[in-house]
């Protein structure tokens, strides 16, 4: 269909550059108004406005999530459906310290550039607004609702310390342990009380005692969110929140069982009780290597050096892992600066010139890689064949 793909790619890059002032303004507006998971009302509105103006059909509140959205542009028939994922939730107190203002805006920018530069594009461009990546797992809810079933490939791009296309991610779950005891005067009648805090502290120590016997890639991190109300009252309520991670969902469930047994025994040991509340399970990431290779080639064609992912450690978790179990997906990274994610320093970079440069590069790489799939049926087939082979192997055991 395209006699000169290189010429079309140059047109896409020029279009992103033309859109760059508007994309910067959008990203900085989201950065200056951080919203927590499931509360991203303004970001949803701001991200969908330019898509609606460009002719995308926008639907808000999909999968029962008030701050989600789906924006679709129908090109010529017979082509693939490619989804670009937008994240836009922030972190408590430190704002956009994971750079989601850049992620959401780069997805929108890539979609706008594709539609404008390639009006005869065969297939459908979909921008999916996926709220609550940091806490709540918006993509998991959307996966369970079938939103990704019709997608041939899914992409997003994350700012990081270095540029990588095949970095993995751990399976994880958050768990809240709420201990219930019995109040009493801590000085005059302590024997009448049951300390929920003692149960919690014993559980905390017990979980730490597991660490020498867990695999190197397992992570169990927790904080005490409530320890009582006054030092002269035996605490009747204490609470801790943990995040448990492992290489795969299967291995995660083994670790969860070990941690939960410790917690229950700690409560029983002092006569308390405990409630365990789980969040959604974030699956490990299945990077599509063929699709990642296309993304890497586009980065290198722009003069951006791509690094190998860490061999051990250095990874977190994301709900795109669940998406990658359903269809071909990638979650590459483009260098923002030397700061690490989830820090005030990273938040500053996400709203600085470094962030605007990363935004431009991410929008270009996403748009160019999507174009590869629309324009090259062989490349699309290779991406899909890799995913189907992986899925068959997984299903067989």
UniProtKB/TrEMBL annotation:
Cross-referenced Pfam families: M20_dimer (PF07687), Peptidase_M20 (PF01546)
InterPro entries (UniProt xref): Amidohydrolase, Bact_exopeptidase_dim_dom, Peptidase_M20, Peptidase_M20/M20A_hydrolases, Peptidase_M20_dimer, Xaa-Arg_dipeptidase
Domain Peptidase M20 dimerisation: 175-267
Annotated family: Belongs to the peptidase M20A family.
Protein name in the entry: Peptidase M20 domain-containing protein 2
């Amino acid at each position: 269909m395209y006699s000169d793909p290189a010429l079309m790619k140059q047109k896409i890059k020029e279009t992103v550059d033309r859109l760059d002032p508007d994309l910067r303004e959008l990203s900085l507006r989201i950065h200056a108004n951080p919203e927590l998971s499931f509360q991203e009302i303004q970001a949803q509105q701001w991200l969908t406005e330019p898509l609606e103006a460009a002719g995308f059909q926008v639907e808000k509140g999909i999968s029962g999530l008030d701050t989600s959205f789906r924006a679709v542009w129908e090109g010529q028939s017979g082509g693939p459906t490619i989804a670009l994922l937008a994240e836009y939730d922030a972190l408590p107190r430190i704002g956009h310290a994971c750079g989601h203002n850049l992620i959401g805006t780069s997805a929108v920018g890539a979609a706008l550039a594709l539609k404008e530069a390639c009006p005869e594009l065969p297939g459908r461009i979909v921008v999916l607004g996926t709220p609550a990546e940091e806490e709540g797992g918006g993509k998991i809810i959307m996966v369970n609702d079938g939103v990704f079933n019709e997608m041939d490939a899914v992409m997003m791009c994350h700012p990081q310390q270095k540029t990588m296309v095949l970095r993995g991610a751990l399976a994880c779950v958050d768990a809240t342990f709420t201990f219930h005891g019995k109040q009493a005067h801590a000085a005059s009648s302590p024997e009448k009380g049951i300390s929920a805090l003692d149960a919690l502290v014993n559980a905390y120590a017990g979980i730490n005692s597991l660490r020498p016997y867990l695999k190197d890639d397992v992570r169990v991190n927790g904080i005490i969110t409530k320890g009582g109300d006054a030092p002269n009252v035996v605490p009747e309520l204490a609470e801790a929140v943990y995040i448990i991670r492992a290489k795969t969902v299967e291995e995660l469930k083994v670790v969860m069982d070990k941690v939960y047994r410790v917690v229950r025994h700690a409560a029983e040991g002092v006569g308390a009780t405990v409630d365990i509340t789980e969040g959604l399970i974030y699956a490990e990431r299945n990077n599509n290597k063929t699709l990642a290779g296309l993304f890497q080639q586009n980065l290198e064609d722009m003069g951006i050096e791509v690094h190998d992912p860490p061999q051990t450690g250095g990874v977190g978790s994301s709900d795109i892992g669940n998406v990658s179990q359903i269809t071909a997906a990638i979650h590459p990274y483009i260098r923002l600066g030397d700061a690490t994610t989830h820090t005030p320093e990273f938040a500053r970079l996400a709203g600085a010139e470094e962030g605007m440069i990363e935004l431009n590069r991410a929008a270009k790489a996403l748009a160019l890689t999507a174009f590869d799939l629309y324009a090259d049926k062989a490349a699309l087939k290779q991406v899909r064949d890799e995913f189907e082979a992986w899925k068959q192997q997984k299903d067989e055991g």
